[in-house]
Write a structure and sequence with these properties.
Strand content: 15-25%
Structural class: alpha/beta
Largest sheet: 9 strands, mixed
Distance between the termini: 19 Å
Order of helices and strands: HHHEHEHEHHHEEHEHEHEHHEHHH
Number of helices: 16
Mean pLDDT: 87
Length: 362
């Protein structure tokens, strides 16, 4: 499985060069105009809502990101693959920019059996009844992406996925790179000590809140769509996310200091209602999973290609970028170790940190 992912990643880059150039350039060039890309999203959705023949099962994919981000373009690819391969029996509609509500609201609707998909991560799943899953979002857990993929292919990960399904949530795919998460602030941050007292926006879950608190910051849970105004009004001092998302939300307009701390190597998952998934035919289930995994590989190529582009755009727009030395980065990692002593707070199984480290081959 691991070899398949790595090989697919490489082949996607080689065999889809022209296609990626078009999509990648489109995503990058339109980012500055993507604050409210509802017309583009409506166009995408209307295509999905018009099956070629017969009555299609329609699944809505709601997400916080802009459609022009690599992740948004990955979802467009998923939509196209489903359209091509389902013979009109299955359709995907895309709703970017939180048009269907926040991540938590979408997950709550899934638990009611609604035909909705969103991206979410272990930190959210911890809040929905699978506490051990939260460790995958711990600060500085992974040294590299290979460790990440090895963990997602482990028996431990399958066990957590099964527990999540028992709680009513089905993972469709776990091979999507969301990106390394960095910290953008309104005040200079050159070392971990500079985070002390700063109010940093994080997604609204316990894992990510405590993950930033141990670094010395004051975490503030907030929907992504509210972050621009909060930075502008100085309600918060910063936000953390991959570069594509920071830039896609235009946060560089109101926060001018970026430290490339890479505190989380963020793989993400696409999740839906277990009841809804089980209501599909076996053929539809297989199609939904296989096309989502294929689109994930496409997304990963776009993510890799876009990193340097987004960083340069931020610099061009006046952002001061700090690339921490190994010694400075070690200061972050040392402080982060406190996070892994809080298993009782999170309700983790005994020895979870050691179990996960072994599963990822660390």
């Amino acid at each position: 499985m691991k070899m398949k992912r790595i090989t697919g990643f490489a082949l996607a880059g080689i065999l889809s060069m022209s296609m990626l150039a078009a999509c990648g350039n489109s995503g990058a060039s339109s980012s500055a105009d993507s604050a409210a890309p509802s017309s583009e999203a409506s166009s995408v959705s209307s295509e999905a809502a018009a099956p070629a023949s017969g009555e299609a099962t329609v699944i809505q994919v709601g997400f916080e990101n802009s459609i022009s981000e690599p992740f948004g373009q990955g979802l467009v690819k998923w939509q196209e693959l489903v359209d091509e391969k389902s013979n009109g029996t299955l359709k995907i509609e895309l709703y970017p920019d939180s048009q269907l509500g926040s991540k938590s609201e979408l997950i709550d609707s899934m638990l009611l059996g609604e035909p909705v998909v969103t991206l979410a991560d272990g930190a959210f799943y911890a809040d929905y009844g699978v506490p051990d899953f939260g460790i995958v979002f711990g600060p500085f857990l992974f040294d590299d992406w290979d460790q990440c993929w090895k963990l997602t292919e482990s028996d431990w990960y399958k066990q957590q996925s099964d527990k999540l399904e028992e709680k009513g949530l089905k993972l469709v795919a776990s091979n999507w790179v969301y990106g390394e998460r960095h910290t953008l602030t309104t005040k200079p941050v050159n070392t971990v000590d500079d985070l002390k007292g700063l109010k940093i926006r994080v997604p609204g879950n316990q894992i990510q809140s405590i993950g930033f608190d141990v670094l010395g910051a004051t975490s503030t849970g907030m929907d992504l769509g509210d972050v621009y105004q909060a930075l502008q009004s100085k309600t918060i001092d910063g936000a953390e996310n991959p570069l594509a998302t920071l830039y896609g939300r235009k946060l560089q307009e109101v926060a001018k200091y970026l430290i490339l701390d890479g505190h989380v190597k963020n793989f993400t998952t696409l999740v839906c209602s277990a009841d809804m998934f089980n209501s599909l035919t076996p053929e539809q289930q297989d199609l939904l999973v296989s096309t989502c995994q294929e689109a994930g590989l496409y997304n990963n190529v776009l993510q890799e290609k876009s990193e340097a582009d987004y960083l340069q755009k931020m610099k061009d727009e006046g952002v001061t970028v700090v690339e921490p030395s190994p010694e400075v980065l070690q200061g972050f990692k040392d402080k982060a170790q406190e996070f892994y002593t809080k298993g009782d707070v999170f309700g983790w199984s005994d020895g979870l940190y050691e179990t996960v480290k072994a599963a990822m081959g660390a």
